[in-house]
Amino acid sequence: MEGSLNMIGLGLAAIGPGVGIGLIFAAYIAGVARQPEAQSRLQTIAILGFVLAEALFIISVALAFVLPI
Amino acid sequence: MTTEGRTVLAEFHPPGPSSFELPPIFTIAGVEFTKPMVLVILSGFIVVGLTYAFARRAAVVPGRMQFAGEYAYNFVRNNIARDNIGSEHYMKYVPYLFALFMFILVNNYYGVIPFIQFPSFARIGFVVALAAITWVVYNTVGIAKHGFVGYLKHETVPGGIKGPILLLLVPLEFFSNILIRPITLTLRLFGNMFAGHLLLILFATGGAYLLLDSGNALYGVVGVLSFVLGIAVSFLELLVMFLQAYVFTLLTAMYIGEAIADEH
């Protein structure tokens, strides 16, 4: 077996943001279901939260390829 | 390589960061032009041409082109600029935001256009330049509004907090608002394009290898599955590419809006 241990770390690093993004969109869906007219306001906030949570994973993607094994 | 009668025709080379280092296509005056460089220059002409085509025959009842253009423009102006900068000063920043949105959108969609198939922002240098422009813009408008010291105070001192806790908060806010913002902007756009394209290369080359070169019929079935997954990921990429253009523009608008906000 060949490969870099970084990739295992990358997989582990995906867990946290994955859970976080799930929670963000769960809250967004619940909010829109309760109050459909608030959708446009909630959408901006939800996508903002999504990109902030995703940034953590994206940083680890960059580091996984940049750092040596 | 031969193992126990089975012949493996070729080694599989998984794609990596080296898949993005393309050889130069041509050289002008000692400058080597690679494919992403040509694509970025081309995208400038595409954006200008598209917006010219949108606006060429402006009519009260819009045609197809004009409708598409107005839809994109309205989206940037109302949903991104006005909601985040505020309804008083937002018009001044709409040209920059709209140009930014169209530029990133065209460059991202290069990744799924047949025969081009290279999102130019999967090379980090281009994204660094874009994030640097945004950084200069939001800091400049902030300094122009509040003055240099006033702007630093506005960005780094959170309202309603007094006492020694400021010693901790001010460096932290300075770090996150001034230093880290361009880095995360860069890494987000670059990382998404890089990872998405890497995934597409992996499914395509892996599928081709399993189907043609592995020399095992059962592997071929997995190869077909790999192609199907590659198509599914392409559709996901379509969404991600739009979302990243939206997010980059949205964050730029938010940073500008925050920089020129009045004291609260």
Automatic annotation (TrEMBL), chain A:
Domain spans labelled V-ATPase proteolipid subunit C-like: 8-67
Recorded GO MF terms: lipid binding; proton-transporting ATP synthase activity, rotational mechanism
A cellular component annotation (GO) from this entry: proton-transporting ATP synthase complex
Superkingdom assignment: Bacteria
Pfam families in the record: ATP-synt_C
Annotated transmembrane regions: 12-33, 45-67
Keywords: ATP synthesis, Cell membrane, CF(0), Hydrogen ion transport, Ion transport, Lipid-binding, Membrane, Transmembrane, Transmembrane helix, Transport
Positions in coiled-coil regions: none
Annotated site residues (Reversibly protonated during proton transport) in this chain: E54
PROSITE patterns per record: ATPASE_C
Location within or outside the cell: Cell membrane; Membrane
Membrane topology, from the record: Multi-pass membrane protein
Family statement drawn from the similarity comment of this UniProt entry: Belongs to the ATPase C chain family.
Stated role: Key component of the F(0) channel; it plays a direct role in translocation across the membrane. A homomeric c-ring of between 10-14 subunits forms the central stalk rotor element with the F(1) delta and epsilon subunits.
Matching NCBIfam families: ATP_synt_c
HAMAP family named among the record's database cross-references: ATP_synth_c_bact (MF_01396)
Protein name as it appears in the record: ATP synthase subunit c
Automatic annotation (TrEMBL), chain B:
UniProt main location, coarse: membrane
SUPFAM superfamilies per UniProt: F1F0 ATP synthase subunit A
Segments passing through the bilayer: 37-55, 93-112, 124-144, 165-183, 189-211, 218-236
GO terms under cellular component: plasma membrane; proton-transporting ATP synthase complex
Membrane association type: Multi-pass membrane protein
InterPro entries: ATP_synth_F0_asu (IPR000568), ATP_synth_F0_asu_AS (IPR023011), ATP_synth_F0_asu_bact/mt (IPR045083), F0_ATP_A_sf (IPR035908)
Protein location: Cell membrane; Membrane
Keyword Cell membrane: yes
Domain of life: Bacteria
Keywords for this protein: ATP synthesis, Cell membrane, CF(0), Hydrogen ion transport, Ion transport, Membrane, Transmembrane, Transmembrane helix, Transport
Cleaved signal peptide residues: none
GO molecular function: proton-transporting ATP synthase activity, rotational mechanism
Role this protein plays: Key component of the proton channel; it plays a direct role in the translocation of protons across the membrane.
PANTHER family in the cross-refs: ATP SYNTHASE SUBUNIT A
Family membership noted in the UniProt record: Belongs to the ATPase A chain family.
Protein name: ATP synthase subunit a
Source organism (scientific name): Mumia zhuanghuii
Taxonomic lineage from the root: Bacteria, Bacillati, Actinomycetota, Actinomycetes, Propionibacteriales
